[in-house]
Amino acid sequence: MSDERKLRFGIAGLGNIAATHAKAIQSIENTGLSAAFSRSEANRSRFSQSFGVPAYSSFDELLSHSPLDAIVICTPSGTHLDYGKAAAEAGKHVIVEKPIEVTVARGKELIHACKQNGVKLAVIYQNRFLDGAVKMKRVVEDGTIGEPVMVRASVKWFRDQAYYENSGWRGTYKMDGGGAVINQAIHTIDLLLWIMGDIAELSALKGTLTHRGIEAEDNAVAVLQFKNGAMGVFEASTSIVPAQPRSIEINGTMGTAILKDDQFTLIFDKANQLSAVQKTSGGAGAADPLDGLQANLHASQYAGIVDAILYDKPPEVSGEDALRSLAVAEAIYRSAENKMFVEPVVNI
Predict the structure, then answer these.
(1) What is the pLDDT of residues 91-149, one digit of tens each?
(2) Domain span holding position 18
(3) Secondary structure (H, E, C), the chain
(4) Does residue 343 lie in a domain region?
(5) Is residue 39 domain-shared with residue 119, that is, in the same domain?
(6) Looking at the whole model, is its pTM more than 0.90?
(7) Both 184 and 331 in a single domain?
């Protein structure tokens, strides 16, 4: 493909995660990073020097840049609809950092805007490309561990007070949608649904236990009933000292599959023998949002996004798919507030 026919990406929002997206885009054949946007002069200057592209102070200027085929939205979650809708109306494909938005209703509106304007919408959930996650999905789907009976998913991480105070938006309902569940644990919710299928109903508790002055929760727990009959327990926290690896354990009628970050373990009943262990690129984020974060997982997802745009196929994580994890987060919040079992509902 000639340079003129490359897919050109622009990035809106130049906070912590933007550099990971930029590196991923620049690593893929037939793509290029074209321009960026941020309200922060310091972020614009740093990004331009690092990646050699213009960075604008106005989103409209970014949309007017040429050549430009797609916009990557890395702004606070509660702004994804506004930026995404404007990009779609300008004829640009839309790639959104997780979560798709802060409510299912706003996520649906973004999906509708992209469909109405004939552009692709993809949401970044790069953990689906972890080798260990792929292996766990395979052993559940092919029956290696038998019928799933019990599930435990745990995101017991740590964020200090400054993490919330210095951002101006983290832990707020308007811009973050919530706290530990929708921000830190949404990746793990996505993996659970991807591997286990949808949740029929859940019951939850939440609280703000260790961080001062934030609106949303820093701790939450839930019990889950999956549609396939399995039961589960979910934990999300940004208060744990020391921070622990993200973990998912699935117990089946013939064996157990465990994922800790990207270390995958498969255990069978016969003499409780360890059958398989693989550790590749580690997980990220337990004690620091960028700790261990590597662009290769984003690059894997971007390769599929490029393919979806070029050949008019659904992306690996579409807007509709991303609504499923957001609906579970919403259900956790509704359950905790109303002290009742709640069914996650999307209804596209």
Answers:
(1) 999 999 999 999 999 999 999 999 999 999 999 999 999 999 999 999 999 999 999 99
(2) 3-126+294-316
(3) CCHHHCEEEEEECCCCCHHHHHHHHHCCCCEEEEEEECCCHHHHHHHHHHHCCCEECCHHHHHHCCCCCEEEECCCHHHHHHHHHHHHHCCCEEEEECCCCCCHHHHHHHHHHHHHCCCCEEEECHHHHCHHHHHHHHHHHCCCCCCEEEEEEEEECECCHHHHHCCCCCCCCCCCCCCHHHHHCHHHHHHHHHHHCCEEEEEEEEECCCCCCCCCCCEEEEEEEECCCCEEEEEEECECCCCCCCEEEEEECCEEEEEECCEEEEEECHHHCEEEEEECCCCCCCCCCCCCCCHHHHHHHHHHHHHHHHHCCCCCCEHHHHHHHHHHHHHHHHHHHHCCCECCCCCC
(4) no
(5) yes
(6) yes
(7) yes
